[in-house]
Specification:
The chain has ten helices and eight strands. With 324 residues, the protein is of the alpha/beta class. It has an eight-stranded mixed beta sheet, with helices on both faces. The N and C termini lie far apart (82 Å). It comes from Euphydryas editha (Edith's checkerspot).
Length: 324
């Protein structure tokens, strides 16, 4: 009996080791296949005299982008609705980069009035805007309608950034050469677009709601690029699957499991910020516009996201929505 149990324990130990080895190999293969850290911005361009506005620049990939551009000498304005976290971010960036031209301004993308007020104040206070990074966004959140009658997820991830950019275009044009960088997601490939989704996003899963907002970001960038004068570019990107506070909505135990997987498979905020930084500074992209990027390279988005007629219709529908 004892020998049998010893034999059984040896078998179980062998199986366990085999499973662990298989899991490690699978993790490595998935890491290489899905999210290789191959897109690193190697450009050393300085940004002295340039003004950069980054929404959601107080954490995650936004914070890492703000820190990198500040290190290059830019005047960096972080726009966010979280006052305390933004103040901490400003202090941290100043201390780590030695650049004291890092500031914070309040902005709530979930409220059109806040966006309009921010844009009005920005244009009065700052004489130029060289780079606008629409980074702020939220993950899969429960359905809620904003004061403007728009689904909160759609408002924060798409309508708010659209409105902000629309209101700051004159400043960007006056400052050209200038750049607009929009953060989207590979998740845009998971869905199609119904224009009713701009307001309600009903009868669909939370993940698909999120995907629709990111599809809108890709389409909007495509339409915007065609309307900008020479010297102003607009590009959109997938930063990678990154461990950031976008997952704060999850149950603590589920979040721990997810973060364990992300730690093994996906990118850190520093890695996730690389494509944003690349689109902000690379001299090779001076005249590149309307593109979708991942790992610092231009790739093709979903077929739906390449539909120019759909992009133009979305543009017009959104203008109606924000009453511009």
């Amino acid at each position: 009996m004892l020998s049998f149990l010893l034999h059984l324990s040896n078998i179980l130990a062998t199986v366990l080791v085999g499973l662990i080895v298989t899991f490690v190999i699978l993790v490595v293969v998935l890491r290489i296949t899905l999210e290789p850290v191959k897109g690193v911005c190697k450009c050393k361009k300085e940004l002295q005299g340039k003004t950069v506005l980054i929404t959601g620049g107080n954490s995650g990939i936004g914070l890492e982008t703000a820190k990198d551009l500040a290190r290059r000498g830019a005047r960096v304005i972080i726009a966010s609705r979280n006052v305390e976290k933004s103040k901490d971010a400003v202090k941290y960036i100043r201390e780590t980069t030695g650049n004291n031209k890092v500031e914070y301004r309040y902005l709530n993308l979930g409220n059109n009035y806040s966006v309009v007020k921010f844009a009005e104040d920005f244009k009065k206070e700052f004489d130029r805007l060289d780079i606008l990074v629409n980074n702020a966004g939220c993950g899969v959140i429960k359905r809620k309608t904003t004061e403007d009658g728009i689904d909160l997820l759609m408002q924060v991830n798409y309508v708010g950034p659209f409105l902000l950019t629309h209101l700051l275009l004159d400043k960007l044009i006056a400052s050209k050469p200038s750049r607009i960088v929009n953060v989207s997601s590979l998740a845009h490939r998971l869905t199609k677009l119904n224009f009713e989704d701009l307001r309600k996003c009903e009868s669909i899963s939370n993940l698909i709601r999120y995907s629709k907002t990111k599809l809108c970001d890709v389409l909007w960038t495509r339409a915007l690029a065609k309307k900008l004068p020479h010297g102003v570019t607009a590009n959109v990107l997938h930063p990678g699957f990154v461990k950031t506070n976008i997952f704060e909505f999850l149950h603590p135990y589920l979040k721990k499991v997810l973060f364990l997987v992300i730690d093994l498979l996906f990118k850190t905020p520093v890695e996730g910020a690389q494509t944003i930084i690349h689109l902000c500074v690379s001299p090779n992209l001076d005249n590149a516009t309307g593109g979708y990027y991942m790992d610092c390279k231009r790739i093709e988005p979903s077929k739906i996201a390449q539909n120019d007629d759909l992009a133009e219709e979305l543009w017009n529908k959104t203008l109606e929505l924000i009453k511009q």
